[in-house]
Amino acid sequence: MATIGAAFNIATGALDADQAALDIVANNTANVNTPGYTLETPTWTENDTASFGGLNFGTGVQETGAQSQRDRVLEQAMQQQTQTESSSSARLTALDQMQAIFSGATSAGTDTSAASGIGSDLSNFFDSLSSLEGSPANDSLRQSVLGSAGTLASDFNSAAAQLQSQRQSLDEQSTSVAGQANSLLQNIAQLNVQIEMTSPNADAGTLEDQRQQDLTNLSQLIGIRTVPTENNGLTVTTMGGALLVSEGQAYAITTGEDAGVTHFFDAEGADITGDLTAGGGQLGGILTTRDQDIPQVASSLDALAYAVGSSMNTQNEAGWDQNGVAGTAIFSLPANATGANPAGSAAQIAVVMTDPTKIAAAGTIPGSTPPAGEGPSDNTNLVAMANLENAGIVNGTSPTSYFSDMVTSLGSLTSEVSSENTAQQASLTQLQSQIGSISGVNLNDEAAALETLEQSYQAASKLFTVLDQVMASALNLGVETSYT
Known about the structure:
By secondary structure, the chain is an alpha+beta fold. 58% of the residues lie in helices and 11% in strands. The strands form 6 sheets. A 4-stranded antiparallel sheet has the order 5-6-7-8. A two-stranded antiparallel sheet has the order 1-4. A two-stranded antiparallel sheet has the order 2-3. It is rod-shaped.
């Protein structure tokens, strides 16, 4: 009777184990589309053996809990690749928007084609000077020079304003991203506490899934490092080492304004803006464009505006206007701007000359005040002004070439970042596929497992029935018993 009782225990244990495993399969199937869910498999443990008459007999198995199918190395690699891809994606979006400024930087009109950009404005302005050379006393041509100068100045202003507007928009985005990151840090800290309480030495199942999903989402926002701790917890830092999560405590990223833009600080008040910029994630890409790409283009634009404005002013002041008066400035520029520091020139350049007769077409003639000689038909200074188009007045480069090089460099940078992002997306997709093959739920596999477990359950049930009949026969000795 003792052996029959043991057999009953084995059958009962088999039924319990199969039912637990079936529940795991059902849970996998129900969560096939749940983001971050990790495939769970039953953990089978052999029961202790029993000894009868000097012989050892097995006592069946039990299902001791679900085990998530994780690959920590792949998860870490995906976290890092997510940070890299998210950074280049955010930067590429911003660079595309910046390129659009120079593919159609217009004045107040509705035309946004490249033909009305700063490059063509420069050409039109110098062309108007060349046209005036043939008839320096022509009022209409003189007015055309001032008109084209006004368009050029207006487009400089427009481009500078759009760059500043984009930088401000990125600044606001950076603050929003930091807020989202802080929310995820709080979630991760809370999950640390739950995991350490419920599964300090084993897989925590869905709790770990939630924490890993939060880490993936956090990696899309900022660059992070994770370090496992005792009791199955995690410490999270920035790539530079600033503490963000320790056990159940989250340390929020705070913000403050410095030099007109948002800076970011850790829990100890240290400025970690550079750390977050280099770290990756969406915030890294945003800050790279905000603090590096836009200022570089804006500085080039300022250099161009200052060089054109100051060179034209200097040359016009070297000649004589239609009234026999020494030439004056055509453009106004910031009072503190210099060739070494032209900051603000693109945003503030403007045409201050309103009287077309003040264009100093005539050259100065020694010993004659006002100049004699050809008088109204003298165009020697005007020729010098027109020749500035091909002179190396912008860091040794002509104005049109300098602007063309600037736009080309921006296009090359955008193309480079685009290529990097495409490669990073491919790598990320590959990692996701690798993780999916290990941790993802395959409905075909789950269907096969379900069929196997159902058969095992039916077999254990059948054994239970047979044992019940054997028990009945033992209790009814001498009575013929049939078995089914």
